[in-house]
Amino acid sequence: MKVKTSVAISEEVLAAIDEIAARPGNRSRVIERALTEFVERQRRAARDARDLELIDRNADELNREAEDVLAYQVEP
């Protein structure tokens, strides 16, 4: 479902959006696509931060496991 809203955008940004849109009526589509991509990047960054925090919290144990695995490798 689409919802109408009002936002304030600088004239320069609006002109750039209109250039990208190329046709009347496409402005909303361009803005929605840009915001969707922005939201996805933010979600991905938050997920990556959570993953990094988890890895950092468990780094000592992960390093011990890696060292254990490397100990079983045959020397050339």
Describe this entry's structure for a reader.
- By secondary structure, this protein is an all-alpha fold.
- The chain has one domain.
- Helix content is 72%, strand content 0%.
- The chain is built from three helices and no strands.
- It has helices at 11-21, 27-57, 59-71.
- Helix 1 (11-21) packs across helix 2 (27-57).
Please report which band the strand proportion falls in: under 5%, 5-15%, 15-25%, 25-35%, 35-45% or over 45%. under 5%
Low-confidence blocks of residues: none
- From the helix content, strand content and strand pairing, which structural class follows? mainly alpha
In whole angstroms, the N-to-C terminal distance is: 63 Å
Order of helices and strands: HHH
Q: How much is the radius of gyration in Å?
A: 24 Å
User: How many domains make up the 3D coordinates?
Assistant: 1
Tell me, rounded to a whole number, the average pLDDT: 92
The counted number of beta strands is: 0
In oligomeric terms, what are we looking at? single chain
Largest sheet: none
- Bulk shape: elongated
Our count of helices gives: 3
Fraction of helical residues: over 70%
Element layout with pairings:
Layout: H1 11-21, H2 27-57, H3 59-71
Sum up the structure in keywords.
3 helices, mainly alpha, 76 residues, 0% strand, 72% helix
